[in-house]
C-alpha cells in the first residue's frame, strides 16, 4: 500500500433509495477502523491435551469506524445529522484509495461538532456496523 493523505479517505452515505446512490460526506483527517471477531470457546472436558478449542465461523463480527474531518458542504452535514437523530441504519462506504473500501449498514453512535474560533467547523463521529460489511479491493 502506498502512502496517502487522510483527506483521500472518503466517507460516503447512501441516499436511502432501493438502488442507492452515494453522497460524499467528506474526507477523514483522523480515523480508526476496528474490525473484530469474537470467538466462541467450544472447549469441553474431552478436548485434546487441555487445549482451548474455538468454534469456527460462530463468533460475532463487527466493524467500528471513528473519524474526524470537515463536511463537504451543508447538505452533507444535514444528511449525517438526520441519520443520527433518526438512528437510521444506512449503507455507508469508506473508500481508501489504493487499498479498498468497506461498505455496509452502519448506525452513527456518536456525532460531535467542534472547531477553533479562527478555523473551520469540523465533525467527529463513530459508525458501528448494523449488518454484514463487505470489503472490496480497489
Structural write-up:
The chain is mainly beta and 138 residues long. A hairpin with a 3-residue loop joins strand 4 and strand 5 (100-114). The mean pLDDT is 88. The chain has a 6-stranded antiparallel barrel. It has a single domain (6-137), classed as Irregular (Factor Xa Inhibitor), CATH 4.10.410. Helix content is 9%, strand content 57%. The chain contains 1 helix and 6 strands; from the N terminus they run E-E-E-H-E-E-E. The protein has one helix at 74-86; strands at residues 10-14, 22-41, 54-69, 90-96, 100-114, 122-137. The chain starts with 9 loop residues before the first strand and ends with a strand.
List the keywords.
mainly beta; Factor Xa Inhibitor; 9% helix
Corresponding CATH architecture: Irregular
Radius of gyration: 18 Å
Number of strands: 6
Largest sheet: 6 strands, antiparallel, barrel
How many H/I helices?
1
Shape: elongated
Could you tell me how far the N terminus lies from the C terminus, measured between alpha carbons in angstroms? Answer: 11 Å
Work out the strand percent. over 45%
Number of domains: 1
Query: Which strand order do you get reading across the main beta sheet?
Result: 1-2-3-6-5-4
Instruction: Give the low-confidence spans.
Output: none
Structural class: mainly beta
Per CATH, what is the topology? Factor Xa Inhibitor
What's the helical proportion of residues? under 10%
* Oligomerization state: single chain
